[in-house]
Design a protein that fits this description.
The complex is a heterodimer of chains A (about 230) and B (about 350). Chain A is an alpha/beta fold. Chain A contains 8 helices and 9 strands. In chain B, helix 4 packs across helix 5 and helix 6 crosses helix 7 (about 250-270). Chain B folds into 2 domains: about 30-325, no CATH class; about 330-360. Classes of the chains: A alpha/beta (about 230), B alpha/beta (about 350). Chain A: This is GDSL-like lipase/acylhydrolase family protein.
Chain lengths: ~230, ~350
């Protein structure tokens, strides 16, 4: 079955799938909590696309997806792949064990331990080596667009980490859409109407909004002009 | 009646034959006995020349309380932490080779705003602070960042002094370079691994006994202002000079340098009951070892030597006082809180996805 987009990633990819549906795009997708990716339960698989270590349910899901797409490897389906995989919350959590903050951005106080921009970059790239590697492998087989997480509860340090990951994606020559770039001037966080009630995610309205940006920027085709439609 | 001569009542450790020649290197006893008793859970801050990092490592390996006032983020790999010089000393000062440099670090700890006066060297489009030019592999992104990070380390140095019962300092060199105008010491000679040498602004100093004694006394007094109960344990690095800027042969310069440092350490230990001297220098470099603990370059100390030094250290360390009643470690509480927040976030993500799955 031809589709308009394949959406994979952490819990933020739920809003992307919802947004695609709202715009009438035909999609397939798979979302798992950030820990399933960070703990490397889900991995890139050369033959099937994705594989879950020790989780039959997820593997059945991947197999079913491949069957529905009519291809052995889900990333060979011809549709653009939207990936949401920064998992910033967990990244910032690890940094707060000893109260570390980025030296730049105004978050440092006498009670904190600042780290340099160079260290922060190397730390973030080390912590997200697996996720960035997965993006690169998928990008070798399909047209990929990485979508940054919704701007919510940013601190100067999590903002700096977010920027490092955005730069890493760009350095790999992979298309990136950073929702932050589409906020109204002066805003640094999603408006209340785009926030999920849990305070940690974007809601369906956010999904529709960010997917409209993906369509406007040409990452996704409008449903009526899509080859697959 | 004849009085017995003073040697007659001396113990076996006072005689070369019974203390050194007969037992041999590995059976020498009573080489060092700590000058003061410490609580069982005493905390140690370690700084100094490169040999001092062996003491940091040995204390941790032995499970003693080593103060790490500027740790790497908890989830950083050991390799990444090492690349950025985390966990080498109790804060990221890098090697402190001279007493003059220690004096400056204490002044910075007293008032971190003084860090802004520390010279920063431009290295291409990066910046290195002149007290620790190699602390970050690529240097800092800007002069401001270099100063901000230096202030952070000065604050961490202060915390390490506040938190420690013992400040362990390994004296390394008498030779160093200073800014001829400001008197600021450098960690390394400008132009060797960073910075540029300028004969009109960079002055060579071979600090003498009195200068080093004064700097050490200033540093000790400054640390006592921060923590009146702190005690000091001095050692002299047995590692010879890489090079000398004097006209002497490097072997002669090494002997001079180590002799002066050893004399200052002895003077401080003899005159202050809260200052002790531990003989790592003697264990490695004196005749009983026959130079066997030096690597083939005759400079680096082998792990066997370090191990023997630390064996004597732990044998003589007196941790016989009752453990101090301490406040719970705030880092442990923060770590638990951070993990709880991550778990809550994971739960929120899973609930969201489950809700979504059920809806479809």
């Amino acid at each position: 079955m031809p589709i308009d987009a394949l959406v994979i990633g952490d819990s933020h990819s739920r809003a992307l799938r919802s947004g695609c549906n709202a715009h009438g795009l035909k999609i397939q997708g798979f979302s798992a909590s950030g820990s399933a990716w960070a703990d490397r339960v889900i991995r890139f698989d050369r033959s099937r696309g994705l594989r879950a270590i020790g989780n039959r349910r997820m593997n059945r899901r991947f197999n079913r997806m491949a069957e529905e797409l009519g291809c052995e490897n889900i990333f060979d389906c011809g549709a653009p792949v939207l990936i949401s995989l920064f998992n910033l919350g967990r990244l910032a959590g690890g940094l707060s064990w000893h109260n570390h903050v980025a030296v730049t951005g105004g978050g440092a106080t006498p009670a904190t331990i600042p780290v340099s921009a160079a260290f922060l970059r190397d730390y973030v790239l080390e912590q997200r080596r697996f996720q960035l590697g997965l993006m690169k492998r998928v990008a070798a087989r399909a047209k990929v667009c990485v979508v940054g997480p919704p701007p919510l509860n940013f601190t100067p340090t999590s903002r700096a980490m977010h920027e490092i990951l955005c730069d890493a994606v760009r350095d790999m020559k992979i298309a990136l859409v950073d929702p932050y770039d589409f906020l109204p001037e002066g805003a640094d966080s999603l408006p209340p109407e785009h926030r999920h009630e849990d305070g940690r995610h974007g809601n369906d309205a956010y999904g529709a909004w960010i997917v409209s940006q993906l369509i406007t920027t040409g990452i996704l085709d409008k449903p009526d002009t899509s080859d697959a439609a | 009646m004849t009085d017995a001569n003073p040697y007659a009542s001396q113990p076996p450790k006072s005689f070369w034959r019974t203390a050194v020649a007969e037992p041999g290197l590995y059976r020498m006893a009573d080489l060092w006995q700590s000058a003061y008793s410490l609580p069982a859970n005493a905390r140690f801050a370690t700084y100094g020349s490169c040999f001092a990092q062996h003491i940091s490592r040995a204390l941790q390996k032995r499970g003693l309380n080593w103060v790490n006032a500027e740790p790497a983020p908890g989830k950083a790999s050991a390799e990444l932490a090492a690349r950025y010089n985390y966990g080498v000393y109790s804060s990221r000062t890098a090697n402190i080779y001279t007493a003059r440099a220690l004096e400056v670090w204490v002044k910075l700890a007293e008032d971190p705003a003084r860090c802004d006066a520390i010279e920063v060297w431009q290295d291409g489009d990066r910046y290195r602070d002149s007290l620790r030019p190699l602390i970050e592999p690529e240097g800092f992104a800007s002069r401001e960042e270099a100063h901000a990070m230096l202030r952070a380390t000065a604050q961490a140095f202060r915390r390490s002094v506040e938190d420690a019962e013992v400040f362990v300092f390994t004296m390394g060199l008498t030779e160093g370079f200073e800014n001829a105008r400001t008197g600021q010491p450098y960690a390394l000679c400008p132009g060797t691994v960073a910075g540029h040498f300028d004969v009109s602004s960079h002055a060579f100093c071979n600090y003498g006994f009195m200068e080093i004694l004064i700097s050490m006394k200033e540093a000790i007094a400054g640390m006592r202002q921060i923590n009146p109960r702190i005690r000091f344990l001095l050692t002299v690095s047995p590692v010879p000079l890489t090079a000398t800027a004097t006209d002497d042969h490097v072997l002669v310069a090494t002997t001079y340098s180590k002799s002066v440092l050893r004399a200052v350490a002895g003077e401080l230990a003899n005159s202050d009951p809260d200052v002790d001297y531990f003989p790592s220098y003697e264990i490695i470099s004196q005749p009983p070892s026959r130079g066997q603990f030096f690597e083939p370059n005759m400079r680096s100390v082998s792990p066997y030597g370090v191990s023997l030094v630390m064996e004597h250290f732990f044998r003589g360390l007196d941790l016989s006082l009752p453990a101090l009643d301490r406040q719970p470690d705030p880092d442990a509480a923060r770590r638990i809180q951070a993990e709880q927040e991550i778990a809550e976030e994971d739960l929120a993500c899973e609930e969201l996805l489950l809700e979504d799955e059920n809806a479809n």
